[in-house]
């Protein structure tokens, strides 16, 4: 059973297929992570919290990622709870300076011209299809202090502000019953997410970092921030968004990174 074909909501899916999938998964896990399967708290943060491990150093992040690595897309997707919020943190815990990461060097960060910038929405959407930066800035804004977890073995707490993605998708007339949202970037990076994650309350189209315009290194003019997903699922410099039922893959996903990529 694949997420790509799945139309059932997670709980119905869990009721009919959950037992056999979880039985397989349990065999792979050692305590204490194993006990958490029964509680359905399978995020990296959730396991860290309840197993008494912390994510304050790269070694512990690496150890957790190794424990989590057996998860396949289906198990993760069926366990995703759209109402569960990722942890948030006080300002005093923000990591300074926040790390930069991309598939290239910091000297090669793309420069996007704010005057000519247009965000395109395509695919299963019948509303507003082109957005300028000023139009995005005029939408209701929120902010979050959350932890970014990179699969390469580091994590950092950052402060982002922007538009709730669910709000943006509705204003764009997106068909929210579609399976995927794909996100294409100015540096030709791309990724894609499932619709429940796109509509999650903490998924933000961020325009600011720590109260200032998002700097180029962190994704100017905008980065989709999802604290429920690993770093590589958080695309920077987004120029085009597509709503689709066809599996879009992604830059790292097509090279073997797990597509669901939950944190
Ligand atoms: N456009 C684009 N987005 C991207 C990447 C990239 O190379 N290009 N790298 C991803 C990875 S692997 C990580 S860890 C984060 C790093 O974001 P940061 O530079 O703000 O820390 O961006 C993600 N989004
Ligand atoms: Mo990453």
Give a written overview of the molecule.
It is built from 8 helices and 10 strands. Helix 1 packs across helix 5. The chain is globular. The protein has a 5-stranded mixed beta sheet. Strands 3, 4, 7, 8 and 9 form a 5-stranded antiparallel beta sheet that branches. A hairpin with a 2-residue loop joins strand 7 and strand 8. The two termini are 22 Å apart. It is 26% helix and 21% strand. The protein has a single domain, classed as Sulfite Oxidase, Chain A, domain 2 (Alpha-Beta Complex). With 263 residues, it is α+β, with helices and mostly antiparallel strands. Bound molecules: ligand MTE and molybdenum atom (MO). Ligand MTE binds next to loops. Molybdenum atom (MO) binds next to loops. InterPro entries: OxRdtase_Mopterin-bd_dom, OxRdtase_Mopterin-bd_sf. This is DMSO/TMAO reductase YedYZ, molybdopterin-dependent catalytic subunit.
**Total number of distinct structural domains:** 1
Order of helices and strands: HHHHHEEHEEHEEHEEEE
The overall pLDDT, averaged over residues, is: 83
Strand content bin: 15-25%
**Distance N to C terminus:** 22 Å
Q: Tell me, what is the CATH class?
A: Alpha Beta
Q: Which value, in Å, is the CA radius of gyration?
A: 18 Å
Please state how the strands of the largest beta sheet are arranged side by side.
Answer: 2-1-10-5-6
The rough form would be described as: globular
Helix content: 25-40%
CATH superfamily: Oxidoreductase, molybdopterin-binding domain
Low-confidence stretches: 1-18, 20-41
Which ligands accompany this protein? the ligand Nc1nc2c(c(=O)[nH]1)N[C@H]1C(S)=C(S)[C@@H](COP(=O)(O)O)O[C@H]1N2, molybdenum atom
């Amino acid at each position: 059973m694949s997420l790509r074909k799945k139309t059932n909501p997670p709980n119905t899916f869990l009721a009919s297929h959950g037992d056999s999938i979880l039985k397989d998964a349990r065999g792979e896990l050692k305590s204490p992570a194993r006990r958490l399967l029964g509680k359905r708290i399978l995020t990296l943060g959730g396991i860290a919290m309840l197993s008494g491990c912390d994510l304050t150093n790269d070694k512990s992040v690496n150890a957790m990622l190794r424990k989590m690595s057996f998860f396949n897309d289906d198990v993760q997707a069926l366990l995703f709870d759209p109402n569960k919020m990722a942890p948030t943190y006080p300002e005093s815990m923000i990591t300074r300076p926040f790390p930069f990461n991309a598939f290239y060097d910091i000297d090669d960060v793309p420069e996007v011209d704010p005057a000519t910038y247009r965000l395109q929405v395509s695919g299963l959407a019948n509303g507003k299809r082109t957005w300028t930066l000023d139009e995005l800035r005029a939408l209701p804004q929120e902010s979050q202090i959350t932890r970014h977890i990179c699969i390469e073995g580091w994590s950092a707490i950052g402060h982002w502000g922007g538009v709730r993605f669910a709000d943006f998708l509705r204003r764009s007339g997106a068909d929210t019953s579609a399976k995927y949202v794909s996100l294409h970037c100015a540096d030709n990076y791309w990724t894609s997410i499932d619709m429940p994650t796109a509509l999650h309350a903490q998924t933000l189209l961020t325009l600011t970092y720590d109260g200032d315009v998002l700097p180029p290194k962190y994704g100017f003019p905008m980065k989709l921030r999802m604290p429920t997903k690993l770093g590589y699922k958080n695309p920077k410099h987004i120029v085009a968004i597509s709503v689709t039922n066809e599996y879009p893959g992604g830059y790292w996903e097509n090279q073997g990174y797990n597509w669901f990529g939950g944190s």
